[in-house]
Amino acid sequence: MKILGLALVAYAALVAGCTMIQRSLMYFPDTNLPAPGDAGAPGFEAISYRTADGVELVSWYRPARKGFPTLVYFQGNGGNIAQRIYKTRPLFEAGHGLLLVGYRGYGGNPGSPSEDGLYEDARAALAYLQGEGVPMVRVVLVGESLGSGVAVRMASETKVKAVILEAPYTSTVDVGQAAYFFLPVSLLMYDRFPSIDLIADIGAPLLVIHGEQDRIIPTRFGRRLFKAARQPKEAHFLPGAGHNDLFEHGLTDIELDFLARLDKPSG
């Protein structure tokens, strides 16, 4: 009984400790951000805007060429927007506009990331584009990993041209519970990003891309999310790809093809 009691105390301490530090286990920001020119981002401007809760954010923006939509890119949980230039280069070089959304707490931006905070950051980014004369019907939301939950939430609130999700999930609770099966994650998690509850509210064309070898967000979550989505939709589950190497397995070729077909009549 004494051993059992000690084990229970140790487990309770583990649960309490993980609960307190859970956001540090979820968000891994790089707090430095170079100038766009120093990051090999030609044509981008560092722009700033204020969120509804008063956070001044810096993001990078390159306007679209005439006739092309503007992509709003919500990054995953690590690094900063400068580290997404390599994988978005084929998109903006093709003529698509690109707004790389800087989150609070990332890339020198003030504040600390949270689910509600990232939603506010996203809403402010979309409001900035509208202020620049870009209508939401010419906007494509792109969500990478954690950012897929942000993209889904924005697409459930706003009518956009299309949505692209890279390595998405049903909810971060599901992903966290799978990774920390020995903890009551579903009871304790703060930032839940419940994409599965919102995906059916999206009427825009949807593209899902996921690596079959993904060990961080297993494809069962992406498949379940895709199944719950409305038409029109398409998915590419790439046999040799993991979580962080979708680009090396044809990610942008798939995205460029999808974007090229958006304005073409069906049939």
What report would you give on this structure?
The protein is α/β, with parallel strands linked by helices. The protein has one domain (2-261): Rossmann fold (3-Layer(aba) Sandwich), CATH 3.40.50. The protein has helices spanning 2-20, 85-93, 115-131, 146-157, 172-179, 185-188, 195-198, 219-228, 251-261; strands at 28-29, 45-50, 56-62, 70-74, 78-79, 97-100, 139-144, 162-166, 206-211, 233-238. The strands form two sheets. Strands 2-3-6-4-7-8-9-10 form an eight-stranded mixed β-sheet, with helices on both faces. The protein has a two-stranded parallel ribbon with strand order 1-5. Helix 2 (85-93) packs parallel to helix 9 and helix 3 (115-131) packs across helix 4 (146-157). The chain is globular. It starts with a helix and ends in a 6-residue tail after the last helix. The mean pLDDT is 95.
Q: Compute the gyration radius: what is it?
A: 19 Å
Q: Percent helix among the residues?
A: 25-40%
Q: CATH homologous superfamily name? A: Alpha/Beta hydrolase fold, catalytic domain
Q: Biggest sheet: strands side by side, in what order?
A: 2-3-6-4-7-8-9-10
Give the averaged pLDDT, no decimals.
95
Largest sheet data? 8 strands, mixed
**CATH fold name, please?**
Rossmann fold
N-to-C SSE string, H for helix and E for strand: HEEEEEHEHEHEHHHEHEH
The 3D shape can be described as: globular
Q: What is the level 1 CATH name?
A: Alpha Beta
Q: What structural class do helix, strand and pairing data support?
A: alpha/beta
Unreliable stretches, pLDDT < 50, 5 or more residues?
none
Number of strands: 10
Strand content: 15-25%
How many distinct helices?
A: 9
Distance between the termini: 71 Å
Number of domains: 1
Give the CATH architecture.
3-Layer(aba) Sandwich
